[in-house]
């Protein structure tokens, strides 16, 4: 037997896999975290690509806005923001003229306790902080994109700032291709209609994990971000332990491109073949904070599982399903074709996740191990359930056969299996 530990919320769970069935672990090609993250951030700020240094862009008397990720992301903003504040201070910008904006997109506001965790007490004592509200009445219109004709409305504080700074981490994203970069404007600080219009293009065949070229969601996001005129961006890439591997600062697109190259090195993982069973954890907290966020692990696991196979999905989901529209679409629509029609006609944030899940369930069986009540998991989200991961694996063998091979993905939300060319046609992604 092979004992494998999987992240589950803030803890771990162990599964035992017969040696003869175990194909191995699909894990990121880890790079070590830097010895001193603050030094790495300062290095990036002092060596910007494509722009002047932030201290040379800002000037005394400026109002500055700094966008950071919300609680659904594991980005260590507390390692980045203090250095940015110091940089702005060097330009003569006072702390009282700086606002940190939590880029919530369509997510809920950040709680005071989460703020402490995300940016640190030092930042909360120094500057104002707000959570972006995508339904606010005072959003500011900054223009219309050519890519998709998206009308871009953004946060008022952000729009009216003299200096606009974006922060975030670059990672894989299942329809924008990659996170980071332009996503700190759209969806992070954009209006709900702006987000809806952009995200409705997720049905496009190029709107997939790890793809930028020809991806209309990504290209529209870039154009939207440029309309909002950010002055400077600081992005990082972390390893699966959340440690900072490298920081990149400067121009929006150049920084993102640098981050993408490093992400590909670390998180695109070649595999020889697919398996009948894939055991996947999104990666623990906050990746499995709810079913909505945890789904990304399934989306990546689809690249490693055979059609008709089984995904054992190990995700705590302490905050339940995580999105009301996700829930409503799973109860309202029985077929993915009807969801496609609804996405084209009247897209609602959250509906896309229902569409992806339903498409996945047409290809594979999914057994969920979580704290989500069986009523919701089985009756609403149409998943098989098990109380423990070993029970789920036992059930998976009953479905796939006792000789079924097993891959394990402990960090599913951030790992993209890439099958050798000979096997690629077997099963398409859910995107």
Quickly list its features.
Rossmann fold; alpha/beta; 431 residues; 15 helices; 6-stranded parallel sheet; 6-stranded mixed sheet
Number of strands: 20
Domains counted in the coordinates: how many? 2
Taking the alpha carbons of the first and last residues, their distance comes to: 35 Å
Estimate the global geometry from the Cα principal axes: globular
Tell me about the biggest sheet? 6 strands, parallel
Number of helices: 15
Radius of gyration: 21 Å
Strand content: 15-25%
The helical percent reads 25-40%
CATH class descriptor of the largest domain? Alpha Beta
**Considering the protein shown, what is the CATH homologous superfamily of the largest domain?**
LarA, N-terminal domain
Class based on secondary structure composition and strand pairing: alpha/beta
């Amino acid at each position: 037997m092979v004992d494998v530990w999987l992240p589950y919320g803030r803890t771990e769970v162990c599964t035992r896999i017969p040696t003869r069935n175990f194909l191995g672990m699909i894990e990121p090609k880890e790079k070590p975290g830097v010895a001193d993250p603050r030094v790495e951030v300062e290095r990036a700020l002092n060596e910007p690509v494509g722009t002047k240094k932030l201290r040379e862009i800002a000037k005394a008397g400026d109002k500055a806005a700094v966008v950071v990720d919300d609680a659904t992301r594991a980005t260590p903003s507390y390692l980045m923001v203090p250095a940015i504040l110091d940089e702005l201070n060097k330009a003569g910008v006072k702390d009282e003229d700086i606002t940190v904006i939590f880029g919530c997109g369509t997510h809920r506001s950040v709680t005071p306790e989460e703020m402490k965790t995300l940016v640190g007490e030092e930042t909360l004592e120094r500057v104002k902080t707000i959570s972006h509200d995508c339904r606010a009445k005072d959003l500011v219109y900054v223009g219309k994109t050519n890519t998709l004709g998206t009308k871009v409305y953004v946060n008022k504080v952000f729009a009216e700032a003299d200096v606009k700074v974006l922060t975030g981490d670059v990672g894989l994203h299942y329809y924008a291709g990659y996170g980071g970069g332009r996503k700190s404007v759209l969806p992070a600080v954009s209006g709900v209609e702006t987000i809806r219009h952009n995200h409705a293009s997720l049905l496009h065949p190029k709107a997939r994990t790890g793809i930028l070229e020809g991806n209309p969601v990504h290209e529209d996001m870039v154009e939207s971000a440029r309309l909002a005129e950010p002055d400077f961006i600081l992005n990082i890439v972390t390893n699966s332990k959340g440690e900072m591997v490298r920081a990149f600062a400067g121009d929006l697109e150049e920084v993102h491109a640098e981050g993408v190259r490093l992400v590909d090195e670390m998180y695109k993982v070649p595999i020889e073949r697919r398996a009948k069973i894939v055991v996947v954890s999104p990666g623990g907290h906050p990746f499995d904070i709810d079913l909505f966020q945890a789904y990304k692990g399934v989306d990546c696991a689809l690249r490693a599982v055979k059609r008709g196979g089984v995904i054992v999905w190990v995700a705590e989901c302490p905050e339940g399903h995580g999105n009301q529209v996700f829930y409503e679409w799973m109860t309202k629509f029985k077929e993915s074709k009807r969801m496609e029609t609804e996405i084209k006609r009247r897209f609602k944030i959250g509906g896309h996740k229902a569409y992806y899940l339903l498409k996945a369930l047409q290809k594979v069986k999914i057994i969920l191990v979580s704290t989500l009540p069986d009523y919701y998991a089985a009756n609403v989200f149409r998943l098989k359930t098990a109380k423990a991961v070993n029970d789920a694996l036992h059930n998976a063998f009953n479905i796939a056969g006792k000789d079924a091979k097993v891959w394990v993905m402990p960090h599913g939300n951030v790992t993209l299996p890439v099958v050798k060319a000979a096997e690629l046609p077997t099963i398409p992604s859910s995107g």
